[in-house]
Design brief:
single chain, mainly alpha, 79% helix
Length: 100
């Protein structure tokens, strides 16, 4: 093999890795944006907090493409969902204080 063939293979592999990493972050951003929608849909009267959380996580897990499931784990989705829950709760508390 000559130098140009080796360089072409290396560049092709680097390109594939770059595309995969950018796709990973793209999907992760979609998940973060969808977390509040999933939480809103899970908010139903008569459900406990754990049930709402589990339902929201399950909805978000369904958004993840099959190829990224090994890399975007349920634990990561739970962290993202918990962060969204915390932001919504902080906002609600802030609004409650403003009304008093």
């Amino acid at each position: 093999m000559n130098f140009e063939a080796i360089l072409s293979i290396i560049l092709a592999i680097a390109t594939l890795i770059g595309v995969f990493v950018s796709y990973y972050y793209y999907i992760k951003e979609i998940i973060a944006k969808s977390a509040s929608d999933a939480i809103e849909q899970a908010e139903q009267p008569g459900k406990k907090g754990e049930e709402k959380f589990a339902e929201a996580v399950e909805q978000i897990m369904n958004l993840i493409p099959l190829v990224l499931k090994p890399f975007i784990t349920k634990a990561l989705v739970e962290k993202i969902t918990q962060a969204a829950f915390d932001k919504i709760e902080a906002y609600a508390k802030k609004q409650t204080k403003n009304k008093k």
